[in-house]
Amino acid sequence: MSAGKIRKVRPHPSQNEGLIFEKSSPGKAGYKLPPLDVPQVDAARLLGDSYRPDLGAMPEVSEFEIIRHYTRLSTWNYAIDLGMYPLGSCTMKYNARVNEVVARINGLADAHPYQPERLSQGALQILKTLSDYLLEITGMETITLQPAAGAHGEMTGLLLIRAYLASKGNPRKKILIPDSAHGTNPATAAMCGYQVENLKSNSQGMVDPAALAAQMTEDVAGMMLTNPNTLGIFEEEIHKIADILHEKGGLLYMDGANMNALVGKTRPGDFGVDLMHLNLHKTFSTPHGGGGPGSGPVACKKFMEPFLPIPVVMARPDGSLGFDYDRPRSIGRVKMFYGNFGMHVRALAYIMANGYDGLRQTTEDAVLNANYIRKKLEDVYEVPYPTPSMHEVIFSHRLQSRQGVKTGDIAKRLIDYGFHPYTTSFPLTVADHGAMMIEPTESEPKEELDLFIDAMRAIAEEAQTEPQTILNAPHTTRLSRLDEVTAARKPILRWKP
Amino acid sequence: MMRYLPKSPADREQMLREIGAASIDELFSHIPAEYRLNRDLKITRQLAESEVVEYFQQRAAENTAGYASFLGAGAYRHYRPVVVDSLISRGEFFTAYTPYQAEISQGTLQAIFEFQTMICELTGMEVANASMYDASTAVPEAVMMAARITGRSGAVIARSVHPEYREVLATYSQHQGMPVTTIPFKEDGRVDMTALAPSINEHTACVVVQSPNFFGTIEEIAAIAEVAHQKGALLVVAIAEAVSLGIVKPPAEADIVALEAQSFGVPLGFGGPYAGVIATRERFVRQMPGRLVGQTTDRSGERGFVLTLATREQHIKREKATSNICTNQALAATMATIFMTIYGREGLKELAKQNLAKATYAAAQFDKKGRVLFSGAPRFNEFVLQTRDDPYAINARLLEKRIIGGFPLRKFYPELGNASLWCSTEMTTREQIDVAAEAVQP
Asked: What is the value of ipTM here, to two decimals?
């Protein structure tokens, strides 16, 4: 193994640790409740048949064991705090610590969603200010912060389209989705009662307006388009796309997963988009948390406003803020309470820390980083689409697959070089499922990019000289490649005593 | 200059040179000129960190800090041991992505596996997923899952289920050909069993109840399950107050449980983020929505964990997926895992028992000033109080004593008149209860 080439990392011991249940024994405890200041009750008598005598295999461990246990587990994770996380369309950027601090301030963190409105003015003001900023950033006119994640925003968006078209007499039957789209798009369309019609990308990796015009009928409610698309390419004919849809009465929905390429440089509301979702956990820096929570606000043009989910933040005649529930044309509620408020706080803190100039510089640096990587690797990895890249760059494994080395293998080998893998095998439009999708974000300094480039170049060389090293990677992790086939065939989904 | 951005002007110039671009705007030149934004965004200037903190402290001050509260109704105030935030604040947890790359994500994967195990143990189910957004969206996902399993389309839901869960179900079901029928509660606040059987027909995929229900009352799960199963429908049980599981028998007769785990160490946070979860029978696992972590081995036989059964999910199945869910509530689920570990087998029981004792004491005190409804059935930590005075007027009196009163039910249950829903947890003191009871009817 060519460890001599690896400059970014070296192995160090990591602690072994079993499951928490394996550390448990009766009589240990990590809690202490204060003495009860009201009379004890006989729970068995009060609850009768509903009384539960014991809690089975729940763990019994001391506080320090809990600290050690989860700290040890944490050291087995890669994280953006450790290094570059080049997952495409995931926007793994720095999660500012001040965001975490302000989200935990008393009065915000302990605010009950049903506390009286007059005691919630601060929270309402945060929702209002974030809404205003997001509208200015997107060029849209009205917004809901309720959706909990991107896919949830998509659902909200399609329900809005449906409600709007139904109000015009016909909700229509189909949603057009380009073949490069994220899987949530078609899954969402199906949940909203729409048939999915795929739209083939052209050789530039873009939507072909002529093909779109041919497929666009009065059965089509709208189109879900990611822009820049999942190839990192700006849909240059975006306005023509919007016009084709609008001429036949359809709407243009934009998946805002890649908004990090646009903030401060161009606005979807200005280039013909009718509604879109944002991923606050991507573009606006709320932490991914190992898979969530996220937040997926949906911003729209004014004509969608009557249909927004309830409740909507409004200004009352006395100048105070409140929630408006009296909206008879609303699509209904998509989530209890008001959305993932804690994420709204963090996103607003991010926007405030950046200001207009910081946000623009962020976008510029994100695009600069992706293009730098492209330039430095395009002689060793194939660029399947010649079109200019924005915030992410797509290579294919075509040159390496001749040696039997595929995108997933190169990704695993990157781990040995100290990096999290890029997104593999997506988008599906790249031949042979060979996509290598790299989004560095603005958060990477030049030194980290150079190390990544060196690693990728070294792996390209290994593909020619010692492909087996790549095929068996990773070599330096606690565990080697895991048996996913058996995991799926005979699922073990919980620990048993 | 912006403090999060790690590049000097010289770095940028050098990179542009190497790319072969004359200026940064050249990299944006394929955006048609007419759509380029040639002005500053009309948002704030850059704020210093101290100014950001100051802004949010001011907003927090406009909220309620320092009030005692009797609000529950789907969002519960429990003590959060400091260990929870201390551990989830490790960057390796909160700045990690979804654990698709198992070899460098074992920490998150094992924590979720422990979460799934504890949720199974507490709910009496055999499998649990890695989390859903919250219980309000887990309920419609459970209904959709029941429809896939039974090949039927409709749902029967109890009116005693959280009104906002029912609203979200209405939103999700409206375009999926899923008729939803609502059944009433009887005089003890529980599902009206005489209305249940006739409401289920050959198109009913599931019956949905909540226990403890929205009024804090514990439903007769076994009896409801029997009726549902006799007619070929599944039983979905929603649980809003997870702490109840410490002392209330789990809904083992249910087919699907839609649990809200907010009570397990997740801040109230003005309504989110929380942590929903779906748990079910092993035989239904391939119809579950959401991510699942499974145990496996690596090439040398070491135990490890991976995301598994992904063929149910949107990134593989696209429009044929079980759900569109992708991002979930992983970090909130991790908070819940740590909370459950801290309290553990004995602590969760003692915690639940304290909640029961506080609510029992509160109900007795309030019953002297009004009338506690639905007293014929067992309750956990909430109860419904009927009062002579308008509950908004009562709450206005209480606010002067820095107490937030119960949740007025009129908005969702006009037939209950002046009734309001009161919650007491381990955080509620006897003194607060006594002062509040006095103010209900001076």
From this structure: 0.97
Residue spans of chain B under pLDDT 50 = none
Q: Nearest to residue A222, comparing CAs of A201, A202, A194, A200?
A: A194
- Residue B156, CB-side half-sphere exposure with 13 Å CA sphere: 28
End-to-end CA distance of chain A: 41
Give SS3 for B193.
helix
Does B411 fall in a domain?
Answer: yes
Average pLDDT over residues A438-452: 98
Do A119 and B116 count as a contact with CB atoms less than 8 A apart?
no
Amino acid at position B136, single letter: S
Q: What letter represents residue B48's amino acid?
A: A
Q: Is residue B435 in a domain?
A: yes
Q: Does B270 share its domain with B366?
A: no
**Which residues from chain A sit within 8 angstroms of residue B136, using beta carbons?**
333, 335-336
Query: B354 — contact with chain A (CB < 8 Å)?
Result: yes
Closest approach of A251 to chain B, Cα-based (Å): 18
Cβ-defined contact of A51 to B249 (cutoff 8 Å):
yes
User: Residues B179, B306: one domain?
Assistant: yes
How many C-beta atoms lie closer than 10 Å to residue A137's C-beta? 26
Residues of A in Cβ contact (< 8 Å) with B354: 33, 36
Tell whether B15 is covered by a domain: no
The 10s digit of each residue's pLDDT in B28-41 is: 999 999 999 999 99
What is the pLDDT at residue A4? 60
Claim to verify: residue B333 and residue B433 sit in the same structural domain: no
CA distance B343 to chain A (A): 5
Is B269 within 8 Å of A29 when comparing Cβ atoms?
no
Chain A hits for B171, Cβ within 8 Å = 159, 309, 331-334
Is the CB of residue B134 less than 8 Å from the CB of residue B260? yes
pLDDT of residue B65: 73
Structure tokens at A146: 């309720």
**Domains of chain A, start order:** 3-32+40-74 (no CATH), 99-351 (3.40.640.10), 366-484 (3.90.1150.10)
pLDDT tens by residue, B183-196? 999 999 999 999 99
Q: Give the count of domains, chain B.
A: 2
Q: CA-to-CA distance for A358 and A250, rounded, in angstroms?
A: 36
pLDDT for residue A447: 97
Asked whether the beta carbons of residue A21 and residue B114 sit closer than 8 angstroms, the reply is yes
Q: CA B104 to CA A476: how far, in whole Å?
A: 10
Does B331 map to a domain?
A: yes
Q: Are residues B113 and A494, on separate chains, in Cβ contact within 8 Å?
A: yes
Range with lowest mean pLDDT among A79-83, A188-192, A363-367, B343-347: A188-192
- Residue B431: list chain A partners with CB under 8 A: 37
A206: number of Cβ within 10 Å? 23
Residue A326's closest chain B neighbor by CA?
B411
Q: Give yes or no: residues B363 and B260 share one domain.
A: no
pTM: 0.97
> Helices marked H in B262-390 — which ranges?
314-317, 330-367
Chain B contact set for A192 (CB, 8 A):
175
Q: What is the CATH number of the domain that holds B133?
A: 3.40.640.10
Q: Which residue of B has its CA nearest to A50?
A: B249
